[in-house]
């Protein structure tokens, strides 16, 4: 039996520098574009399919609406980098003013908005560590959505900014098809066989996303995050989830 994965696009408002969370109503939505992938038959893909079906079945049984979390990562042009640095500083100021109990954050982490060529990796690494340390307890305490959203926005902006200006022809899209109570059906642990099926990222390919709060070893290496390694905070991907990632050409209009 063959399985296919559709991503259906409809017009709407998108925050290009944060996670978007939309309720899904397949009946009411007017989808203008549909992109379809035929899934391979690797053991890891079979786990993904099983988990996807189990999570949607859980939602139906509990009469809970479906949600889609998604991020767009624009091409890293100088203009987009400048906008992202400004967004980061505004987000940090908002967190200071509106998130009581926040830790591992101070104003020395503010970015230089006038210098798009300076990646400021040390600051970005510190900001990402702030996200890692605060998101779990905020979710456990069920902090207001707006507070969690701003802390998540720091994470999204870090990943956009950490590779600097690249005149890339691609934009990256991350889709998580369920949210909230989805973790009632946990992710499936990865095996050695699963890791052996990992391949180099190719544009246009539907991929299992990292979906882990933290950085794996390659992310620590590429961002020169030595403190993360010293503090034993490296977090490899250990689970298969229902989150996927694709890269599209920047001239593919899906919005």
List the helices and strands and how they pair.
Elements: E1 4-9, E2 20-24, E3 33-38, H1 43-61, E4 66-73, H2 78-98, H3 121-140, H4 145-161, E5 170-176, E6 188-189, H5 192-196, E7 207-208, H6 217-222, H7 226-230, E8 239-240, E9 244-249
Antiparallel strand pairs: 1-3, 2-4, 4-5, 5-9, 6-8, 7-9
Task: Explain what this protein looks like in three dimensions.
The chain is an alpha+beta fold. It has one domain (4-249). The chain is built from 7 helices and 9 strands; from the N terminus they run βββαβαααββαβααββ. The protein has helices at 43-61, 78-98, 121-140, 145-161, 192-196, 217-222, 226-230, and strands at 4-9, 20-24, 33-38, 66-73, 170-176, 188-189, 207-208, 239-240, 244-249. Helix 2 (78-98) runs antiparallel to helix 4 (145-161) and helix 3 runs antiparallel to helix 4. The mean pLDDT is 82.
Kindly give the count of domains. 1
- N-end to C-end Cα span: 32 Å
The percent of residues in helical segments reads 25-40%
**Pattern of helices and strands:** EEEHEHHHEEHEHHEE
Physical arrangement of strands within the biggest beta sheet: 2-4-5-9-7
Q: From the helix content, strand content and strand pairing, which structural class follows?
A: alpha+beta
On the 0-100 scale, what is the average pLDDT? 82
Main pleated-sheet profile? 5 strands, antiparallel
């Amino acid at each position: 039996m063959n399985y296919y994965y559709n991503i259906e696009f409809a017009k709407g408002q998108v925050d290009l520098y944060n996670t978007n969370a939309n309720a899904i109503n397949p009946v009411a939505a007017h989808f203008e574009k549909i992109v379809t992938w035929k899934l391979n038959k690797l053991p890891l893909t079979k786990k993904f399919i099983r988990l996807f079906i189990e999570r949607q079945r859980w939602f139906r049984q509990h009469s809970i609406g479906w949600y889609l979390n998604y991020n767009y990562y624009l091409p890293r042009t100088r203009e987009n980098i400048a906008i992202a640095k400004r967004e980061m500083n505004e987000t940090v100021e908002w967190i200071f003013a509106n998130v009581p109990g926040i830790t591992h954050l101070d104003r020395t982490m503010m970015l230089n908005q006038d210098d798009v060529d300076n990646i400021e990796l040390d600051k970005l690494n510190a900001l990402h560590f702030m996200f890692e340390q605060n998101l779990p307890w905020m979710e456990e305490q069920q902090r207001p959505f707006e507070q969690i959203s701003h802390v998540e926005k720091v994470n999204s902006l870090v990943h956009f900014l950490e590779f600097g200006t690249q005149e890339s022809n691609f934009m990256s899209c991350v889709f998580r098809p369920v949210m909230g109570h989805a973790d009632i059906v946990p992710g499936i642990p990865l095996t050695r066989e699963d890791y052996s099926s990992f391949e180099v990222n190719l544009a246009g390919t539907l991929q299992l996303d990292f979906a882990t709060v933290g950085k794996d070893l390659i992310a620590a290496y590429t961002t020169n995050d030595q403190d993360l390694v010293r503090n034993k905070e490296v977090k490899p991907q250990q689970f298969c989830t229902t989150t996927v990632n694709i890269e599209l050409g920047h001239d593919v209009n899906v919005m």
